[in-house]
Design a protein that fits this description.
With 653 residues, the chain is an alpha+beta fold. Among the domains are: 106 residues, GAF domain (Beta-Lactamase, 2-Layer Sandwich); 151 residues, Histidine kinase-like ATPase, C-terminal domain (Heat Shock Protein 90, 2-Layer Sandwich), CATH 3.30.565.10. The protein contains 17 helices and 18 strands. The radius of gyration is 43 Å and the shape is flat. It starts with a helix and ends in a 5-residue tail after the last strand.
């Protein structure tokens, strides 16, 4: 029986297999090191170009602010009493492409705490990159709130970054420039700057300068990023679906080297979702602190592919040499590799789930043949145990499913019982509270009515000028009593009934407008009323109709805010061959979102969260339906919403 050890020894000692791979490894390693050094040199050059552009932005911004401070038009505007300095600075800010521009008198310039402004107050123009807190951004004149919102960057969990509990970066990295203003009697500091957070033009310009797309094969695919500490606040690195990777963070290794130690990183680094040949430089603010990083880099994959292709060529050449010498060694190795390959294929099939796979008889009469036979025996045992385990598993799953179904049924019954108990308890509590509140309201209502009668008796004929107002008070006291009756009816429905009468829609409408006149006047809302003379009387509780109209008018006023027009119309309208009357309330507000129209009458639905209960329209619909009518809502053709109340005519119910 031939020895496997002898065959392996012969193959191991062959010079072709030992010496040539060693020489290839040394040569390829040396070439790879030189190749990587060239890539690092390229990315270092890219970083210099990007840094020069940043310095140019600083110089240009400082020059623009200084030139404006020394301009004749600024001097003239500053000297003139009553001149619109804010408007002038706003126009100049837009012309210069700045995000903020404001003037500080010298007396206030020393209290800001910014070194840039302090140097300008001392007579020296200065431009630096500073870190503004959210309050600092919001406090900037004219544009502060907008800049504070633009600076917000939600943090995205990033692989290999330093762990943090923060969820948003709200600080702003700003090109901060200040220059002295020397106008007599108006000495101070002119301050301007650019917010770099989300400043995509800034970062895209850097990328275009550093990585011009020449269209040539093998051109570098580069990216550029501005970091606020370790958070990407302006970048053209893509995250997914073409979106920029704003809010992602740099790896912990890069952060430690650049921000903690102040070194420039020139090496491969993992950027968001791929490896890049990267360069990072710390950004220093006006106080000398490291507040961020400037990054440029190009995708490493194409160059890795080029290296792999070079390796492939070298190894292909090596394989060609081996192929010329292979026949001799294949004859020696055939009896070893063939059984091993059969074993490998068999194990792969077993791993894929084919437990019937077997190696079978091996021609070799050595250790390999013995191992193959033993392996087939082990596979037989594994297959048998697998059958037993599957049977046990099926039985266990069946039992678990049965118990789970029983638990689900029991849990559903328990949940239903619990909800019924909670609802019963709530209804009992609401009934007690409603009855108590209703009885408490009756006492002051009786006092008001009694004093109103005393006023009439005391004034006698002198009450004639205010008879209309006294009548209104009478009706509103009656409305309070009716509402109290409704509350008591809710608490004790068997003790109270409903009271309806034939009413004129126009008269009820005019009474309601008197009650809400202060709301409409305060909001400067114009009211137009159109009453058709042939509008029939309708049968409904007047207090309930007033409640519905007041709710609709108040909702319309709140929707329009300040200004607008409220259009109310009464007219006869037949519905399903039944005569009736319609009251239409329209406004010029924003209208109702189309996807919300179907839900406006649902209980607790509201578009003004925190300002109402969402029960007004639901209650109004219930009151109109009790009177045999219907209330509908739609958007007007141009703008605004329109609600229509239809009620059957007198005697048509």
């Amino acid at each position: 029986m031939k020895s496997v050890r002898l065959r392996l020894l012969i193959l191991a000692l062959l010079p072709l297999v030992v010496l040539m791979p060693a020489l290839l490894a040394v040569a390829v390693g040396r070439w790879s090191a030189n190749y990587d050094a060239l890539l690092i040199t390229n990315v270092e050059t890219d970083l210099r170009v990007a840094d020069q552009y940043v310095q140019r932005i600083l110089t240009t911004t400082g020059g623009d602010v200084t030139a404006l401070a020394r301009s004749l038009r600024f001097d003239r505007t500053l000297r003139e009493d009553g001149a619109d300095l804010s408007g002038f600075l706003a126009r100049e800010r837009d012309t210069l492409g700045l995000d903020f521009l404001y003037y500080l008198p010298r007396a206030r310039a020393g209290d800001t705490g910014w070194p840039v402004i302090a140097r300008a107050a001392a007579g020296v123009p200065a431009t630096e990159i500073d870190l503004f807190a959210q309050d600092d951004l919001a406090a900037l004149p004219e544009t502060g709130p907008a800049l504070a919102d633009r600076a917000l960057v939600p943090l995205i969990p990033t692989k290999a970054a330093v762990p943090t509990t923060r969820t948003v970066e709200d600080r702003g990295m700003v090109v901060h420039s200040a220059t002295p203003v020397t106008t007599d009697g108006r000495e101070g500091v002119l301050v301007g700057g650019i917010l770099l957070n989300r400043n995509l033009d800034f970062i895209d310009t850097i990328n275009a300068l550093v990585y011009r797309d020449s269209g040539a094969p093998g051109a570098r695919q580069g990216t550029a990023t501005l970091f606020l500490e370790d958070v990407r606040v302006s970048t053209n690195v893509r995250l997914f679906e073409g979106s920029r990777a704003l809010g992602t963070r740099v790896s912990a290794a890069v952060r430690h080297a650049v921000l903690d130690e102040g070194r420039t990183w020139l090496d491969s680094a993992f950027v968001v979702n791929d490896w890049y040949m990267s360069a990072y430089r710390p950004i220093i603010d006006s106080t000398g602190d490291r507040i961020g990083m400037l990054y440029v880099g190009f995708l490493q994959a194409p160059f890795d592919a080029a290296k792999r292709n070079a390796y492939l060529i070298v190894f292909t050449a090596f394989l060609a040499v081996v192929a010329l010498s292979a026949p001799l060694f294949l004859r020696l190795a055939r009896n070893i590799f063939a059984p091993l390959e059969r074993m490998t294929r068999t194990m792969a099939r077993v791993e894929a789930g084919d437990l019937e796979a077997r190696i079978g008889r091996v021609p070799a009469r050595d250790e390999i043949g013995a191992v193959a036979a033993h392996l087939d025996s082990l596979l037989d045992q594994v297959q048998e145990r697998d059958r037993a385990l599957r049977a046990w598993n099926d039985e266990l799953n069946q039992r678990v499913d049965e118990r789970t179904a029983e638990l689900r049924e029991a849990n559903a019954k328990l949940e239903c019982t619990y909800q019924q108990l909670v609802m019963s308890e709530k209804l009992a509590s609401i009934g007690e509270i409603t009855a108590g509140v209703a009885h408490e309201i009756n006492n002051p209502t009786a006092v008001i009515q009694g004093n109103l009668d005393v006023i009439r008796e005391t004034l006698g004929d002198r009450a004639e000028p205010v008879l209309h107002e006294l009548g209104l008070i009478d009706r509103q006291v009656g409305r309070i009593s009716a509402i109290v009756g409704k509350l008591l009816q809710f608490a004790r429905p068997t003790e109270f009934g409903s009271f309806e009468e034939d009413v004129d829609l126009g008269q009820v409408l005019r009474d309601c407008l008197v009650l809400v006149d202060h709301v409409l006047s305060k909001a400067e809302i114009e009211v137009s009323i159109s009453e058709a003379p042939d509008t029939p009387l309708v049968t409904i509780n007047p207090g309930e109709l007033q409640q519905v109209i007041i709710n609709l008018v108040t909702n319309a006023a709140q929707a329009m805010g300040t200004g607008g027009r409220l259009m109310i119309e009464t007219r006869p309208m037949a519905r399903e061959d039944r005569p009736g009357a319609a009251l239409v309330v329209g406004d010029t507000g924003p209208g109702i979102p189309e996807d919300k129209i179907a839900a406006v009458f649902d209980p607790f639905f509201t578009t003004r969260h925190g300002e109402g209960t969402g029960l007004g329209l639901s209650v109004s619909q219930t009151l109109i339906r009790q009177a045999g009518g219907i209330i509908t809502a739609r958007n007007r053709p141009r703008n605004g919403a329109e609600f229509t109340i239809w009620l059957p005519a007198q005697g048509a119910r």
